[in-house]
Design a protein that fits this description.
With about 575 residues, this protein is an alpha+beta fold. The protein has four domains: about 5-205, no CATH class; about 220-325, PAS domain (Beta-Lactamase); about 330-400; about 405-584, 2-Layer Sandwich (Heat Shock Protein 90). The protein is about 55% helix and about 15% strand. It has 18 helices and 13 strands. It has a six-stranded antiparallel β-sheet. Helix 7 (about 135-160) runs antiparallel to helix 8 (about 165-220), helix 12 (about 325-365) crosses helix 13 and helix 14 (about 415-430) crosses helix 15. The radius of gyration is 44 Å and the shape is elongated. The two termini are about 60 Å apart.
Length: about 575
């Protein structure tokens, strides 16, 4: 049967498994051991004082009992001061003899030497209790059996000394022996029960500690802010997201802090007061005003913690969501819906657009006036632009229904990159701006040649749009990294990207240019993933005319082929970070 707290714990079933071994608490055992040893020494001192008193009063002139008590007290005190705590074994070993054996023999000797004037049988309870608590049940029953046997030997000896009263002596021995067995069994069961309870408590504490650590980790990493506020307005706890949303130096460093200390947080204070006054959850959109910054719109939900039996302090837990993040998620969902709709619309307007382009070409043949020619050229340019947008929109649905990249034919990367870069240089007249760096020797990758062309041309067009007019402002590199990964990179000396642009770089329909569809990099990523490759953006340094120049770099890491030695097929989606670290 598990404890109730364990059943409510996420980690209870695993941590409270019966087979789980926990380390015993050595301090607890040492405390019990020293307690019993102190009791033995104290009992020895009491017995010694008792015998000295009897001798001083003249009730007995025999010094044997004083000698026995002196030896017992000295032995018990020596064990208490010099011996180290050690659990009892499972047999009558040397440790049992030095402690329990001495006790039993001394008490038996006192009973025999004192005669029937004083009954020392109750003293046998001390060694019986000690072995029951510090040892096993078998050893405890064995000690009780030894005491019982000695009691019957003493009863036999007494019967021989005083004939005619043997029955009472044997009855007293049997009663004492039965009491020893009962005490040994019950004491051992109680000690085992307490040990099990302590073990359960340790396991419950372990489960609670692990669950608390996981809860703290989850709360710390939540993107939404969480505040725990008491009725006086003191913030007891706040996760990093909440401190960032509050935006004040006091909230970022101090803990706890007063929620009413800044006027910009007044909306949170009002919502907290309303929650406590109405004793229920509240929700509201609040504007947080930051000093030196613009206001932030947040959505706040509150919950009150339950009190036990109507007693104790209730706390208000505030869940804070940034409205900008919520709006960004809504925009992403809308863009996805618009993308599906755009693909359908693009498919429908493709044929009418082709008809317009063909009609414009026929009309251009019959016109001779320059002004009319200029108009047909404008129609032709915009028709080509629309055709390119339609193709990019349709490419989204194509790349989403692609085949596995392993079925793609083997492609010599060096030759394909050389051809594509040469064709692009001729078409864009960018011979002086582009430099191609290829590793010696053929390198094969599993990739469709047309898809590779589209990726590389798209990256080159982006680089040309933002690169300078300097020599080698655009650089294309291909080869193997020191980690054995085949890569293709396109670098340009353009200005750093804005963080808001970089965050959504590979998302569809996102572009910093008003005349761009925002589908180029998204299609590149989809084509790469379709062939088991990956694409990433970094801000890196390149050597341009002997100087280190910082620029924008897009790196495509290809899926390893079976022919690449030392490269495991398990590293299909390996990150490009190791390559970047060795070429930075």
């Amino acid at each position: 049967m598990r404890l109730q707290s364990d059943a409510q714990s996420w980690f209870g079933p695993s941590l409270l498994d019966p087979g789980l071994e926990l380390v015993d608490n050595p301090q607890e055992f040492e405390r019990l051991w020293r307690g019993f040893m102190t009791a033995r020494a104290t009992l020895g001192l009491v017995l010694l004082l008792l015998q000295v008193t009897i001798y001083a009063l003249g009730a007995s002139k025999d010094t044997t009992l004083i000698l026995i008590c002196t030896v017992y007290f000295s032995a018990a005190l020596a064990v208490r001061l010099m011996a180290s705590p050690r659990p009892l074994g499972k047999t009558f070993d040397a440790q049992w003899t030095a402690t329990l054996g001495v006790d039993i023999l001394v008490f038996a000797a006192l009973q025999v030497a004192q005669g029937s004037s004083i009954n020392y049988a109750p003293l046998f309870a001390l060694p019986i209790l000690m072995v029951s608590v510090l040892g096993s049940l078998l050893l405890a029953l064995g000690a009780a059996a030894v005491v019982t046997l000695l009691m019957f030997v003493y009863a036999t000896w007494t019967s021989l000394q005083v004939p005619g009263d043997a029955a009472s002596h044997f009855f007293q021995a049997a009663l004492t022996g039965a009491g020893c067995f009962v005490i040994s069994f019950l004491a051992n069961q109680i000690a085992s029960r307490l040990a099990n309870v302590e073990l359960r408590a340790q396991r419950s504490q372990l489960a609670a500690r692990v669950q608390r650590q996981v809860n703290e980790l989850v709360i710390e990493s939540l993107p939404d802010g969480i505040l725990v506020v008491d009725q006086s307005g003191t913030v007891r706890a706040a996760n990093p997201a909440a401190r960032q949303l509050l935006g004040a130096e006091r909230a970022l460093r101090a803990s706890p802090f007063e929620l009413a200390s800044l006027t910009g947080w007044q909306g949170l204070v009002d919502l907290m007061n309303r929650s406590f006054s109405e004793h229920g959850a509240q929700q509201a959109d609040i504007t947080i005003h930051h000093a030196g910054r613009g206001p932030s719109r947040v959505r706040v939900r509150t919950q009150l913690t339950a009190t036990q039996g109507g007693h104790g302090e209730s706390l208000c837990v505030m869940f804070i969501q940034d409205q900008r993040e919520m709006e960004a998620r809504m925009r992403t969902e809308k863009l996805a819906s618009m993308g599906r709709m755009s693909a359908a619309v693009a498919h429908e307007i493709r044929n009418p657009l082709a008809a317009i382009a063909q009609a414009n070409a026929l009309l251009d043949e019959d016109l001779s006036e320059p002004r009319h020619k200029q108009l047909t050229q404008m129609v032709q340019q915009n028709a080509k632009r629309l055709e390119k947008i339609v193709e990019e929109v349709l490419d989204i649905s194509r790349v989403q229904h692609r085949d596995d990249g392993l079925a793609a034919p083997a492609l010599v990367l060096n030759g394909a990159v050389t051809r594509i870069c040469h064709d692009w240089q001729v078409q864009t007249a960018s011979e002086h701006r582009l430099r191609v760096n290829l590793a010696p020797g053929p390198i094969e990758v599993r990739f469709e040649s047309e898809h590779l062309r589209r990726i590389l041309v798209n990256l080159l067009d982006n680089a040309r749009r933002y690169a300078s007019q300097q020599l080698d402002a655009i650089q294309v590199s291909a080869g193997k990294s020191t980690m054995g990964h085949v890569f293709l990179s396109v670098w340009s000396d353009g200005q750093p990207m804005d963080q808001s642009v970089e965050r959504h770089l590979f998302e569809p329909f996102f572009s910093s240019e008003s005349r761009s569809s925002g589908l180029g990099l998204y299609i590149c990523r989809e084509l790469c993933e379709g062939h088991g490759a990956s694409i990433a953006y970094f801000r890196t340094m390149k050597n341009v005319k002997g100087k280190a120049v910082e620029g924008n770099e897009f790196i495509v890491t290809f899926r390893p082929t079976p022919s690449q030695n030392g490269v495991s097929m398990a590293s299909n989606n390996t990150s490009v970070t190791p390559w970047l670290q060795t070429h930075r």
